[in-house]
Amino acid sequence: MIPKYRKQFNQEFSDEKYTQLKEILKQKGGVEPGFRISESPIFLTKEFEGKLLDASESIINQIKALPAETLQKAIPDNCRVPNDTDQPHFFTIDFGVCKNDNGEIEPQLIELQAFPSLYAFQKTYEETFCEVYPFLSDIQNTMPHEDFKQYLKDLIVGDENPENVILLEIFPEKQKTAIDFALTEQLLGIKTVCLTKVKKEGKKLYYENNGKLIEINRIYNRVIFDELDRIPDLKTEFDFREEVDVKWITHPNWFFKISKFLLPLLKHQFVPKSYFLHEFPENENLESFVLKPLFSFAGSGVNLNPTKEITDAIEDKENYILQRKVTYEPLFEDINGEFSKAEIRLLYIWRENDEHPILLENLGRMTKVAMVNVDFNKKDAIWIGSSNAFFGEG
């Protein structure tokens, strides 16, 4: 997409530098990433970045205009958590890098979430790319590291002592994203705590540190609430649905409210038409759509080629959407002359007193197969996996 940077990167690339990139990330996080790191960043033009931001602004404004009761409908009754907030603390939007019918490269919305992504990791990843390939500093994110840190600290820690703030996950050491937890701990001075280790007395929550019980006042929540039911014999003292004296960052209800549930309600040239399965019109061609469950993570349950037999067999049709297929364009040339496709996730934060979210960083994903997800890649391919996008003049 930006020929001069792509050419320079491919000329400078070596297996040794790729190993160096991964080794620096491991040193900084104290643990290896549990997902594949792409050899290459994604280079995109400032013009494309403008299209991303235009679409995002429109989507954010449309969501802000929705009645609160519309969003409340998205929350399954068995997953409703008390003390909801007026807006989420995090907002992420995924766009595919696609080609339209006129041959123009444009973003197309894939999904959106009010759930934290790899904020600390992606900032570190971008900085590490620039360490290994210094010429990338010319087009790196203009937000200084200290500003990024302060934004996240204001949001997650707030006025609390970091000791009373935790990053909450279920079996965090087993998660592929453990490196992000470690980097977040370093950045903010907070502890990562497993849900099974949280202790409850009345409405107060505690965790143990060096044999001492520490009160929890704020929770940076990384638990996908509806996935807890799938863990056999899970024993916890604390249930999300209980009323407790904590501040959620972000409140678990927003995982459902800002989700695929909203896709049929949004309109923009970069938003593919979507329908709830039970409202799919007879005059539409099923072959032109992708079937997605409303509440799933990391691409699970997605069917790229749904048939009428498959959709007819689904009983809870209101919990699925059909989204018009988009064509990811293979644009990102590797050192062998082969091309990868990509998806960009914009990582916003939304502070409580702000009218609008603030864009902090981006997350890229590269692939050579149909599903743009780091788990669905060919194992021997290159230019695939987790990446970071750099924007410059074309």
Task: Characterise the protein shown here.
- The chain is an alpha+beta fold and 394 residues long.
- The chain has nine helices and 18 strands.
- The protein has helices at 3-12, 15-29, 46-64, 68-72, 119-132, 145-156, 178-188, 253-257, 308-312; strands at 42-45, 90-99, 105-113, 165-169, 191-194, 199-201, 204-209, 212-216, 218-221, 247-249, 274-276, 289-293, 320-324, 332-333, 339-349, 358-367, 385-387, 389-392.
- Strands 2, 3, 14, 15, 16 and 17 form a six-stranded antiparallel beta sheet that branches.
- Strand 15 and strand 16 (358-367) form a beta hairpin.
- Helix 2 (15-29) packs across helix 5 (119-132) and helix 5 (119-132) crosses helix 7 (178-188).
- The longest helix has 19 residues, at 46-64.
- The radius of gyration is 21 Å and the shape is globular.
**Distance between termini?**
7 Å
The count of β-strands is 18
Helix content bin: 10-25%
Category from helices, strands and their pairing: alpha+beta
Q: SSE order, as H and E?
A: HHEHHEEHHEHEEEEEEHEEHEEEEEE
Q: Give the low-confidence spans.
A: none
Residues in β-strands, percent: 15-25%
Instruction: Give the C-alpha Rg.
Output: 21 Å
Continuous helix count: 9
What order do the helices and strands come in, and which of them pair?
Elements: H1 3-12, H2 15-29, E1 42-45, H3 46-64, H4 68-72, E2 90-99, E3 105-113, H5 119-132, H6 145-156, E4 165-169, H7 178-188, E5 191-194, E6 199-201, E7 204-209, E8 212-216, E9 218-221, E10 247-249, H8 253-257, E11 274-276, E12 289-293, H9 308-312, E13 320-324, E14 332-333, E15 339-349, E16 358-367, E17 385-387, E18 389-392
Parallel strand pairs: 1-18, 4-5, 4-9, 9-10
Antiparallel strand pairs: 2-3, 2-15, 6-7, 7-8, 11-13, 12-13, 14-15, 15-16, 16-17
Helix pairs in contact: 2-5, 5-7
